[in-house]
Structures are given as C-alpha cells and as structure tokens.
Amino acid sequence: MASSSKHDVVIVGGGHNGLAAAAYLARAGREVLLLEKLDHAGGAAVSAQAFDGVDARLSRYSYLVSLLPQEIIDDLGLRIRLARRRYSSYTPDPANPGRGLLIDNGDAGATAASFAAVGAAATEAADFEHFYAECGKLTGTLWPTMTSPLLTRSEAKRLATAAGAGAVWASLVEQPLGETITSRLHSDLVRGVVLTDALIGTFARADGADLQQNICFLYHLLGGGTGDWDVPIGGMGTVSGELERAAREAGAAILTSAEVTAVRSGGSVDYRHGGREHSVSAGWVLSNVAPVVLDRLRGSSTGEPANPNHRREGSQVKVNLLLTRLPRLLDSRVSPEAAFGGTFHINETWTQLDDAYLAAEQGTVPDPLPCEIYCHSLTDPTILSPELQASGAHTLTVFGLHVPDRLITAENNDRMRTVLQAAVVKSLNAVLAEPIEQLMLMSADGTPCIETKTTLDIQRAVGMPRGNIFHGGLDWPFAEDDAPLDTPARRWGVATDDPRILLCGSGARRGGAVSALGGHNAAMAVLESQRSGGL
C-alpha cells in the first residue's frame, strides 16, 4: 500500500541546484522534501574515486566553477574555497607542435612573446587583449543581474550601452560570433583559442544563425563578470557537499534512492523508495531534472518537449586519466606545469574546429579530434592522497569537442567509447614528447587509469538527456521584449505551463554549469509568490 505525505515544497532531483533551492526555502521556514534517484546527492557536481584501489577523488563530470555567485556562497554560509589558475590556456601550433601559445595571466610580456613565437601578427596580442577587455564591459554589466528578476532584451541593451558596452552588445548578441572573431583577429590559431569557449558542450558553427555559439560564449565569459574559471579545493564534490550541508542544517529533508515516477498537476509527486510506492503533495514542485525528463514525468503524450531548445543534443566526450607524472611536451620552451596549469587546447585552430564540425555533421568522428585538458591536481593537490602527491602523480581531465549525441546509439555505444578514447589519446600524443599510455597509473586490477564517458554514458549516469551538460540549449540571460513576465516564476525565468511546477535546474533560464542560479532563482520565485499571495 502506498504511503502519502504533505510538504510545502517538493524538489525533484538532488543535483547542486536542487540542493541550493532546498537550502534557501528551508532557511525561509518552508517544509521541504528533496527526492533524489541516486544513492547520493550532488548530481553531476560530485567527486568520485574512479579507479579501483587508487586514492584520487576526481571531479568526474563537472570540472570548474565560474558562474556560482559569491552572493549565494554568502547567503547560505558555504565553506567553499576556489583557487584561481595563473595560466589561462596553452595551445600548441598543429603546424609545428614544437611551439605553442601560452596565455599567462601573471606575465603580459611573456604572453606577448608567446604570440610572436607562434607567428601571430605583431598586433595580435594587443588585439586579443582588447577583444576580451571589450567583452568584459558587457559581462561585468550583466553579471550582477543574474540573481535578480530577468531584464528584457531592451533593458539589458540599455544597461550595456550606458556602461559603454553598446558596441560589444552588437558584436556578441546581435550577429554571429564568427563574424566578430574574424573581424578582430587574424591568426587561425588565435581565432581558435577564442572560439573554443563558444563550443563547449554545444554543437554549433561559428557563423550559426541561431546564435547558440554566441550564448555559450557569453556564459563562458560571464562568471564574476570576468570569466575566470576556478578550481574548487577538494574537488567538485565539496561544492555539492556544502550545499547539502546547508540544506540539511536548515531543516530540509533529503531522501536519496528515491525515484520519482510521476509529477502531477496541482503539486502531487509519486516516487519509489525502499521497495514501496509513495505519494507526496505540496504547494510547489521544483524540478531539478532536465525539462525533457520533467515532460516525461508529467506524462507528455507526444514525447517531444514543449520548448524545442530543450531537445538539443550534447556534443562531447569526457575522459579522465591518472598519470605517474606530467608528460613532456614537444614544445621544450614551455614547462608541463605551465602548459597544464590552465586549459590545454589541442587541435583547436579555427579551421580545425570548423572541419571537425563538418565531419561530425556528416556522421563521422572528427580526425583530429579537438580536445581541451584540465589538470586539477596542479592547482589542488588535495584531491590526491599524500602518497600519490609525493610520487608526482597527476590527474588529467579531457573534454573532446564536436562529438554530438547523434553519433552514439545504444547499439554502438561500447564500440564508440573505444573509438573516442583512441581519438583522444591520438590527439594528446600529437603534442607530447612521449606516449601518454606509458604514463598511466594502473588500478588495482592492473588496468590503466583511464575512463571515457560518451553522451549516452552521461545520460545513463546522471540523467542528462542526450548527454547535454546544460540540460538542453542555453538561453540568453534576459527575456525577449514580448515575453510574458506577469508572474514571479516568469520574471525569474523558472516557469513551466503549470504555475505550481517550476524549473530549478540547468534547464531554467540562466541555468547551466555549476552556478546554483537555477536553484536560487526558483526559490526566489516561490518566496515572492507567497509574499504576494498569488502565483
């Protein structure tokens, strides 16, 4: 026999956004029940011991933090430390891997010399710096609005213009990003360094008319108004762990291994836990699952999302490795510590990125595969045991671009995982002075410490449809001028077609990445609605 209960708020999904919403609402005195399908909270923002017998805690799915506002950290009393990386990026020249472009945040002169070393025009370093300074005028203006009700497009444009960012608004919001980059920069390699931020997890071309690449680029530069991406000390799991602590200490009930089976109009949720069926009713249901998943839980008869943007596919392969030490580079002028100290770009010139897109669009795995590498253990050795630290071991996390979900099926997933892992290793070895395979640590069972996650693997593990790390296509962080903003849910960008069911995850407007913005904004919509006595 099914049991039933009643709460003020039920949250479906225990990712970091759901935990943030639970913490805010419980602190405001609401009775909150959070239901999480997995046996732990945190969703994709977790740390895990990925390799048997090897004491290393990897940020398995989400890697870096940029979009988490200090306001949320302060509001919830989160004990989170974020470490800034000195180096922004390193990009070997595929025409001559013995040289590369190192962007050193701590030494402008060294950065300028590096531009010259890769044959960039004498003015390219200054043009590159000026481009990002101009972008910063816009992102610095928009960033403070992320924890407030949505501006309209016209309001956001007026705000940007008043801050001297009218020209960059036109460049980043009103025309394809490709036109902006090619008009400002001339080196194929330098253009590629800029374009990568528009493509992470997004299957798009630089000149795409739908501007998904522009939106992705804006979010990558938006965090803190500066676009710095920081390493969470202790691994990504510390972020979710602190949000969970804040929620529990505020009085929220968090139930894991609780699989939601239905969400009904009026605030009723069915779930399975402990081998029994349960039902809970609430004044508000907040959905931390992807909008496509919510549609299914609500019994959508068409199988298609109401918003086609929510159906966009993911476009990446993720590979985690543990190495005995950092590999030597073909570029002997740059130390491995500097090259791996920021984002390491491989095969990501402007031309290579476009060629990779076209290959994937035609149904083949790009060759060479564009890749980005992060070495968290350089910035945060605490994710390794003292023994691994002393031995010189390091983690590498690789993000392969332009691997759209359309290439992956249930039937070919195992084969494609092998193919994509080999493509990543091939890209790595193209810029190294020694094979990466020789440096892999061995797990307890004698297998190399390397794991690969396709879009389907990600969907199966953490419920991201089509492996989309943003739960669907990203939206501008403002509302269109004709969008209805007549309810708190709509003003905060968290509305569904049911006034009692709100989005609180990455699928909300201004969602995506580890930001807690979806959770914060949904909680604010609930509290505003209750204060006003309406929906």
Key words describing this protein structure:
535 residues, alpha/beta, FAD/NAD(P)-binding domain, Polyamine Oxidase, Chain A, domain 2, 3 domains, 7-stranded mixed sheet, 35% helix, globular
Quick structural gist:
The chain has 535 residues and is of the alpha/beta class. 35% of the residues lie in helices and 19% in strands. It has 19 helices and 18 strands.
Describe this structure in words.
The protein contains 19 helices and 18 strands. It is of the alpha/beta class and 535 residues long. The chain folds into 3 domains: 3-45 and 236-310 and 471-532, 3-Layer(bba) Sandwich (FAD/NAD(P)-binding domain); 47-67 and 82-120 and 229-234 and 313-467, Alpha-Beta Complex (Polyamine Oxidase, Chain A, domain 2), CATH 3.90.660; 128-223, no CATH class. The chain is globular. The model has no long low-confidence stretch (mean pLDDT 96).
Q: Topology of this structure?
A:
Layout: E1 3-12, H1 16-27, E2 32-35, E3 47-48, E4 58-59, H2 70-76, E5 82-83, E6 87-93, E7 96-104, H3 108-117, H4 124-142, H5 153-162, H6 166-173, H7 177-184, H8 188-195, H9 212-222, E8 231-232, H10 237-250, E9 253-255, E10 258-264, E11 268-273, E12 276-287, H11 291-297, E13 315-323, H12 336-339, E14 343-346, H13 350-361, E15 371-374, H14 376-379, H15 386-391, E16 394-404, H16 413-429, E17 450-453, H17 455-462, H18 488-491, E18 501-503, H19 517-532
Parallel strand pairs: 1-2, 1-12, 2-9, 6-14, 12-18
Antiparallel strand pairs: 3-4, 5-8, 6-7, 10-11, 11-12, 13-16, 13-17, 14-15, 15-16
Helix pairs in contact: 1-10, 1-19, 4-6, 8-13
